[in-house]
Amino acid sequence: MGEQQAAPRRDALQEPSPAVGDLNELLVGFLDGYREALARKLAGLSDEQLMVSRVPSGWSPLGLVWHLTNVERRWLRWGFAGERLDDVWADADPDETDAPWRVPAGATAASLLAGHRDEVERCRAAVAGHRITDRGADTGRFAGDEQAPTLGWIYCHLIQEYARHLGHLDITRELADGSTGE
What we know:
The protein has five helices and two strands. The protein is mainly alpha-helical.
């Protein structure tokens, strides 16, 4: 039996420096690390590999990109900033609560990744100048809530959302081409 060659590894998550003492900088640093890891983990997959599901639930890597784009919108722009947004649940099938994330008709890997980068920039602009102790708007997602979450809580929620889903993506990537990563 010949020696099995190891699958190529992708770059590790770019974490903020352990010396960072500012909590806002720390949370944004971790969130940005995960945001950047998304495109890196998809690099090198063919269009077919990006569109096909490898798991019983039916979601595809591009569906995951679209979902994370909408998660950013829902939590930071609609939730925290209180922006009026159309179709905040664009990644969900309105007729099925357990359906996989649906990708818009005609979407491509390039368009969805560019859309994710653009949404991240809009979200950064929506929270610019705010402290992590500031609470979300009492309009939009949190209308009627007695105590909307703080920006720091929302950052932590987004970090865990990315971490969980990028772990899912690692598994589907390994099933697609054998590549593993951190």
